[in-house]
Amino acid sequence: MYGSSGEHTGRKEGEMKVLITGIHGFVGTNLRKYLQHAELYGIDRVQPAVPEVIKTFCWEELRTEAAPSGDLPDLDAIIHLAGKAHDTCNEALAQEYFDINTGLTQQVFDFFLTSAARTFIFFSSVAAVTDCVVGHTLTEDVISTPKGPYGESKIRAGEYILDRCATDPYCVSGKKKVYILRPCMIHGPGYKGNLNLLYNVVKKGIPRSLADFENRRSFASIDNICYVVEQLLNRDIPSGIYHVGDDEAISTNELIRLISEITEKNTPSWKFNKGLMERCAGVGSLLHLPLNIERLRKLTENFVVSNARIKAALGIKEMPVRAEDGLRKTIRSFETDKVAVEDL
Description:
- This protein has 14 helices and nine strands.
- By secondary structure, the protein is an alpha/beta fold.
- The protein has a single domain, classed as 3-Layer(aba) Sandwich (Rossmann fold).
- A seven-stranded parallel β-sheet has the order 3-2-1-4-5-6-9, with helices on both faces.
- The chain starts with 15 loop residues before the first strand and ends with a helix.
- The N terminus and C terminus are likely disordered.
């Protein structure tokens, strides 16, 4: 529990003990604040002291099996967040993805199988499954067709988990629960990604040049992500692969409207020809500019993901946070971050 000053004041007996890899990243930072009634441990490249985490171990301690054995209690759950994110500038080496997204996941999952933990949650991504959505929505039944090392490394990690589960007696019997989550583009306070680029363009009053693109895209509010994780930790939900996202898909033009409204910028809308915008993005890729082919695609493509399976498993009709409300919270956090930087 925590006092009003945020200092660690001890935990109640019987609290769930959870190990989170990548606990100081974007998702981990939000998740550790959400899981207030759990005893949290972390594994990460950095080990800052934060009130929500009892101890953060370095990766070498896991590799040598020195650690965590001495200082970790018997765990109830492991949440594997750590991974190499998709590089929209395409500057990362392919082997880095396989070393981290595949190799590291294998190592963490092997640790889980030998531990007392009963729940394992692996964060993959819908972007790892396919580059485009064929039909109206992307479901868990789609045949994976990853393109590039990011998607391939994530899918391989998931395949390894499923293969090990098929032969592990505790997984087969249901004594150990294993979840592979494929979230849509996650956003929230602390988010750094393509939405920031769009926010900065609108904030500067630059005319909207994407008005000619009509698309729908699924997003995942960090609050909905945290809610799903908490439910998986505390309820008897069937193991499996689940897509996680908000209920409503949002168009890029709707997103720009939200940013304009929050930033109070009456940004004019210019309908640039799609072909011209794509050629400009191509130049951006060659010159390593902020707007490149990959980012333009992510901002303007149709990518609608079904969250029906996870809602059915949880027995809910809708996610706690509406897509527009979650995006408003994220956009307002950009405003707060900007003020904080200016105050330094």
